[in-house]
Amino acid sequence: MPSLPLSLSLSLSLSLVLWLGLVSGAQAREVELSGQIDIEMQHFPETPADPEQHKTYLSLGAEPEWYKQWDGGDNAVVFRPFLRTGNHDSHRDHVDIRELNWLHVGDGWQVRSGISRVFWGVAESQHLVDIINQTDTLEGADDEDRLGQPMVNLTLIRDWGDLSLFWLPYFRERTFAGDEGRLRPQPAIETDRARYESGAEQAHQDFAIRWSHVIGPMDLALSHFSGTSRDPILLAETDRSGNLVLIPFYEQIEQSALELTAVQGDLLWKLEALYRDGRSDDYWAAVGGFEYTLVGVMDTAADLGLLLEYHYDERGEEATSPFQDDLFLGLRMGLNDIQTTEILAGVILDNESDAMLGFVEASSRLDEDFRLSLEWRTFKDLETEDPLFSVRRDDLLLLNLAYFF
Amino acid sequence: MPQVFKRLIPLLVVFIIPSLHAQAPSPEERGLEIVTEADRRDQGWQDSRVDLRMVLKNAHGDVSERELRSLSLEVDGDGDKSLTIFDEPPDVKGTAFLSFSHPVGADDQWIYLPALKRVKRISSRNKSGPFMGSEFAYEDMSSFELEKYTYRYLEDETLDGTETFKIESTPVDEHSGYSRLITWYDQQEYRPQRIDYYDRKNSLLKTLTFDDYQRYLEKYWRAQTMSMVNHQTGKSTVLHWGTYQFQTGLDDQDFNRNTLKRIR
Question: Is the ipTM of this structure higher than 0.85?
Fold first, then answer.
């Protein structure tokens, strides 16, 4: 009886909606429905490395959010599903629950239980220490889109800082573009055949702790993570027909990290550093630099931010990250106009080769409820041993029009 | 003139004239006195919550609106803490701005970006930048602290039928976008009625007018409408404040970086 799952899921959704109080007409802000729907075009001007790949991709995305709070916000639930569907690459048709959690706030503490997103870090050009949530590489090349992570997170808010404890009972595998998709290694990654160091695989229980504090002009955080690495090692193997395939392998790691921001006049200093110990390697890595802001440039209302960050990875050429000895230079421009127009442009230069990654991201509001975003990325002079070599022909022009409600 | 009086003249010059002079305060002292009184009358409100609608208009008359909520906390012996949450336009919904102001030195400021769930520290030195694309600079929106300016009383003036004190304020912070401000306080209640802002080149930049004053808790006056006109660009911004709620029980924990992530 094929109609049963559909009617069941419909009635489930309906009862969820009723429970969230959308139909009961509760007071403003106690219950909210908001979110966004977008249409996106990605265009890769260069001929793909693999004939299965395409030049132009179109897709449709949706990310609604239901929110309900009671007891003046001491209890709240949020449900934020995510969906993208497009032509060509079947992997890009994906659904995720970005958030589905219950927050309870006590006096000097709070607990969030369920699927959620937690951001750690201070740098702009790389998110080095951000480890709680898995990266959704299908949604962007900047490592800022993450999958929802199941967790129980207790935070104590004290005079000596905020202490956050995490229990992460289920592991999310990284998403990768499929055979027909761009911005992927060659050959495509066989995500179905992912392997783990731990016999518990995705059911391995991960834990993390983070202390953060404000000390005058300085924000400081120290953290430790124990569990399954979010970054897979790609194993090159042959399948039954003798073709080369890449298989993600997830190690067990211990990671200790530091995050620091310090304000000094117009300068904002930033540093992220980590030490990671795993089966294949133990190493330390860091990203640090500054942001300097000029206000009212050339007698306009605009402000201009100058960014400089340096990336270091002790593993050097062996690093799984492309940023082992690289310099990031960036410009951030906020026009401070009615449309809130923002432009971020930058280059990441590899100090050990001529490799260069350049990008421009710009966005502006149209009417009151739309936002148009434009993104351009280019890869230059990548060497064969560079982790980015496989995307050398994947210069990208992206146009996204989002409607917010 | 008797000899004895002639001898007294130097004494008169040395002692009596300066002391007579001391009786009439200098314009600086008079200015500080008036602003201190205005500040004193606005103390003890503890905390407040209010909704705000901003109407931005450019020189062509195009209009755009923003909706925000603002929470404030009075802090003993330091500047106020404030939290501003953006509700409209929808693409910036959930963005929040946390500020700990200090009478002396730079304020501590953070911005919360909901798409990334990221709390980001920002440099507060650049206070002259526009707030949300409006004609209000960050420094116009931040809480008033007596120590942030030096004062000079200029004159009494009748402004639209109201008797006012006209005071010149000079920002202490060299990073302020202004060379000076002229503020008109009404003599009855010591409420600002109008402020003229002069840019760093000392040209008139903006005028802020306060309207529809309402009294809360029988003591605290709040202008329900504030209109800022930029004379150099022809743009304007009007703030329409909702009904203020005072003493709602907010405390330090409601103005924490962690709270930013759960604020709605």
Answer: yes
